Amino acid sequence: MDRKTNSIGYLPVIIITAIITAIIMYIILCKLKPDPPIVEKPEEIISIKDAVELHLSYRKNRSCIIKAYEGQDSTITSLCSTRRKPDPNFVPSLAFDLDKKFLEQYIAYVNQITPDTTDITGYRLYIGNYPDSTYFRDGKPIPDRRRNTFFIAPTTLVENETRGFTFVDRNNDGEQEILFLEDELELRTSTPSQNPPKAKVNTASFFSFTSQGGGDQSTLANEIGGHPPNAQ
């Protein structure tokens, strides 16, 4: 009977000892856990004062011109003609959203579809403007008619020049060819009297690979949220 009583009396002591031991072990493990590496501040980081100065400069020297242009100011349209109908209530874009989840997914996707033979050196933002239409030429809806936007593309180094790139399946046979945006943009904007784009690359002979399922393996992303929201 005395032994049973003693065993019952020792039980709380055993439990308390186990709890204290667990706490001590937790503290020790926390102290042994290495601190996360310190990330050095990028040189491109700017102060809030500089950011405000940049944005206010855009509003004063660019945004007002865009608004006047869309409203069909005669002085501006005489210098840069347009077929668009005037919109005196047009509000220019002032900012764009880049969702963290989108960025992580986008970078992972680009890494997934880009073969090891192409070295991704970074990402480039291309400025664009939505047409004054309901749909793109391929039938995709246009989210913000007439508003400025941008699209993003990965870059690689070609002949000591950084270029944005994507992949296209020209023959719908699953054979992907790398296409450089700078070549395409220069080709579309040049006139017959102008010289052809500098260092035009034959994309088919430069690099190709086979993908599953066919269709273009595009690396380009758009439809970034804009501010202020479209009032139309």
Quick overview of this protein structure:
By secondary structure, the chain is an alpha+beta fold.
What would you say this structure looks like, in words?
- The chain is α+β, with helices and mostly antiparallel strands.
- It has a domain at 94-227.
- Helix content is 38%, strand content 17%.
- The protein contains six helices and seven strands; from the N terminus they run αααβαββββααββ.
- The strands form two sheets. The chain has a five-stranded antiparallel sheet with strand order 2-3-4-5-6. A two-stranded antiparallel sheet has the order 1-7.
- A hairpin with a 6-residue loop joins strand 4 and strand 5 (175-180).
- The N and C termini lie far apart (87 Å).
Task: Looking at this protein, list some descriptive labels.
single chain, about 230 residues, alpha+beta, two-stranded antiparallel sheet, 6 helices, extended
Question: What is the fold's blueprint, element by element?
Answer:
Blueprint: H1 2-32, H2 48-70, H3 74-79, E1 95-96, H4 100-113, E2 122-129, E3 148-158, E4 161-168, E5 175-180, H5 181-189, H6 203-206, E6 208-210, E7 226-227
Antiparallel strand pairs: 1-7, 2-3, 3-4, 4-5, 5-6
Instruction: Please work out how many helical segments DSSP would assign.
Output: 6
Low-confidence runs:
196-214
Amino-to-carboxy terminus distance:
87 Å
Which sequence of SSEs, written as H and E, runs from N to C?
A: HHHEHEEEEHHEE
* DSSP E strands, number: 7
Helix content: 25-40%
Gyration radius from CA atoms, angstroms? 29 Å
Helix and strand content put the structural class at alpha+beta
Which outline best applies?
A: extended
| Strand fraction | 15-25%
What's the mean pLDDT score? 77
The major sheet is characterized as:
5 strands, antiparallel
Strand order of the largest sheet: 2-3-4-5-6
Keywords: Membrane, Transmembrane, Transmembrane helix
